[in-house]
Amino acid sequence: MSQFVQEKRSISPLFWLPFGAGGMLSALFGPALILITGILAPTGFLLPQSFESYDHARAFAQNPLGKLVLLAIIALFLWHGAERIFLTLKDMKAGPLLNLKYATYGVAAAVTVVTVLLLLAVGF
Amino acid sequence: MSERRPYRRPMSPTWWANPPYRAYTLRELTGVAVAIYGLVLFFGLVCLALGPGAYDGYLAFLRSPFSIVLHLLLLAAMVYHVVTWFETLPKTQPKLIVDGKPFPAKKMTDIAIKVGAGCSLVLLLIAIWVGR
């Protein structure tokens, strides 16, 4: 029975989970998040400018649930983007695969680790 | 050693910029917008951890015209992502059978887009209520 050679298993599915989770999270809440943090609060339209003041942001980042929300959004959005950008650059034959992986998955992994450290650093 | 010499259809180096692949490229490019928004929040967290002075700089950036225009572009890309994401949904789902008939893909997309818009609307209303 040794004529059946075990095929090398792909690790791609490990990347599909954060890709899908980030895609779904951004599809459900992305437009509102961009409106709130990037347009309404900075301009003071419909939301007070103090909405994302230092004190408010710190209180949010110190709350355990707030930490989970921030980690989920930042990490999953980056892993989602990394998967799409990597596959597109790969299809465009933009460069050696290893470089493309560092530039996409590498950035997402680094940002994830630093986000965890920062969320611990801001305290509870 | 393989003697196979399969025919490879020639492709121009800019195939991704031309139809029919352009729609696919545009859809995938929304991933750049999603990642950029994640990075904007990430730098906010970096400045938050550095202290009030750094965070004030971050707020000044968010209030700059550059940032507002950037976020308007991100918003447009994100809305396109919502639509294309839910257009793909029926293709990635196991076949859904309702009353013995396959559930129409378009209907599933329509419902999912409404659910997504509803989620964003509720989050927006909660933020406005909290910020009163």
Task: Name a few traits of the molecule.
heterodimer; A: 124 residues; mainly alpha; 3 helical TM bundles of succinate and fumarate reductases; 4 helices; B: 132 residues; 3% strand
Structure overview:
By secondary structure, chain A is mostly helical. Chain A is 76% helix and 0% strand. Chain A has four helices and no strands. In chain A, helix 3 runs antiparallel to helix 4 (97-121). Chain B has a single domain, classed as Fumarate reductase/succinate dehydrogenase, transmembrane subunit (3 helical TM bundles of succinate and fumarate reductases). Chain B has four helices and two strands. In chain B, strands 1-2 form a two-stranded antiparallel sheet. Chain B has helices spanning 21-50, 52-63, 65-92, 105-131; strands at residues 97-98, 101-102. At the A-B interface, helix 1, helix 2, helix 3 and helix 4 of A face helix 1, helix 2, helix 3 and helix 4 of B.
Task: Give a quick summary of the entry.
With 124 residues, chain A is mainly alpha-helical.
The CATH architecture term of the domain at 15-23 and 54-121 in chain A is Up-down Bundle
DSSP helical segment count of chain B: 4
Strand order of the largest sheet of chain B: 1-2
Unreliable stretches of chain B, pLDDT < 50, 5 or more residues? none
Question: What Rg of chain B do the Cα atoms give?
Answer: 22 Å
* SSE-based structural type of chain B: mainly alpha
* Helix-residue proportion of chain B: over 70%
Count of DSSP strands of chain A: 0
Largest sheet of chain A: none
The termini of chain B sit apart by 73 Å
Which residues of chain A form runs of ≥5 with pLDDT under 50? none
Looking at the structure, the CATH topology of the domain at 15-23 and 54-121 in chain A is 3 helical TM bundles of succinate and fumarate reductases
Order of helices and strands of chain A: HHHH
Average pLDDT of chain B, rounded to a whole number, is: 94
CATH level 1 class label of chain B: Mainly Alpha
Taking all residues together, what is the mean pLDDT of chain A? Answer: 93
Task: Classify the beta-strand content of chain B into a percent band.
Answer: under 5%
Distance between the termini of chain A: 59 Å
Note the run of SSEs of chain B as H and E: HHHEEH
